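Researcher: Following up on the earlier apo prediction. This time include the ligand. It's nicotinamide-adenine-dinucleotide, with the SMILES given after the sequence.
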Amino acid sequence: MEKNVTRQQFLAQTAMAGAALLLSSLEGFASALPDKKVKVAVIGCGSVSTQYLPHLSKSKYVEIVSVCDIIPERAATRAKEYNVPNQYPHIDKLLAGAPFDMMITLTDMQEHGRLNKQALNAGKHVWSEKPMANTYREGKALLDLAKSKKLRIWGAPAVVNSPQFAYMSKAIRDGKLGRVASAHAHYGHTGPTWSAFFYEKGGGSLPDLGVYNIATLTGLLGPAKSIMAMTTIVTPERTVDNKGKIKVVAEDNTQLLMEHAGGVLSNVQCGFNFFDPHGHQGKSEENQTIQVWGTHGNMALAGYDWAPHGVDMVTHDHEAPQRFVPDPGEYVWQQGASVISESLVTGKEPLIAAEHALHVLEIIEAARESGISGKKINLISTFKWPVV
Ligand SMILES: NC(=O)c1ccc[n+]([C@@H]2O[C@H](COP(=O)([O-])OP(=O)(O)OC[C@H]3O[C@@H](n4cnc5c(N)ncnc54)[C@H](O)[C@@H]3O)[C@@H](O)[C@H]2O)c1
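Model: Understood. Below is the ligand-bound prediction.
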């Protein structure tokens, strides 16, 4: 304690800090929601909204107040389908319209940072599809803004919520694999056909697909210290529903290498040129897409991390392969905003953390940089680990 601060002043200061903490804690929000429902507004009524809205509308913790899209017919269609009372053609009108607690951002990726900032400035919590912002710096500023306003922001994906992720995380912590050395993850398909933004600046296979694998591997192995990547464009021209023939500007083929603490290395392979008989809806993918190797065992996730089918393991003590956690339980990839709403009502911290989403965003940005410069990039961000 500083000499010139009296004991009384010290106690008063810490009490104030405690009160501030309580205000921004989930318990604080929970007590401000007496009817135990979070009023949400969905911005972006395209493809992914058809996955979010059914899940949200079944949640007892959610009241869907408004939908918004710059293509007003899309907002009108969703409002009709899900019985949503208000629809708006612009975020300004959404924020000035029917009151709500949390904005759910499902627009083009390049719009997320700007829209999320506007929502925070209007006093709303935010759940954002990935990425939370276009750059790590922009994302970090959003988190700081949220903190300064005693609000919360979270970003997809929700992969850390699966029971398979929890099982793999615990197996590593329990030493079932011995000393972990290496891991691999991949996710790809032949690319979205409906919207150009996936192929424009700020898009690419990393923020759309690799993001799941990066969240899983950093979630399992801990924050990355540095990365190297090669990024290429395999299909330079595409035809998409909303703009016809376009030039592909963002990478559509990436190999990313990550260095974690203790010499552990992992790699992610993602792209928009991967034939997969299960296509974009790869739920029925049964093959292993994530592998972790250690000195006493190895384990693999069957299916994608966003639609897992089980964990296959072989160890020193049990060389015959065994499958664990074949049931995903209530986990589905599109549950993020519903799970966060539940947390806001119950006051229980979710496993998903903004700091983790920001770390993944920093890796994505660094991979783009490394892809251009050919250099290894050191990272500055981190997050609370282990997650489970
Ligand atoms: N489609 C999927 O299966 C899927 C799955 C997981 C995550 N995502 C993520 O969800 C996001 C949206 O993807 P999508 O496939 O639904 O794209 P989409 O093109 O189908 O939908 C985006 C919608 O946002 C609207 N929009 C764009 N800018 C807006 C703005 N400023 N204000 C209001 N509305 C605006 C567009 O008009 C469009 O209707 C992306 O971040 C994507 O990575 C998509």
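Model: Residues 43-48, 68-71, 74, 91, 106-109, 111, 115, 129-130, 194-195, 208 surround nicotinamide-adenine-dinucleotide (CB under 6 Å).
Researcher: Noted. I'll compare it with the apo version next.
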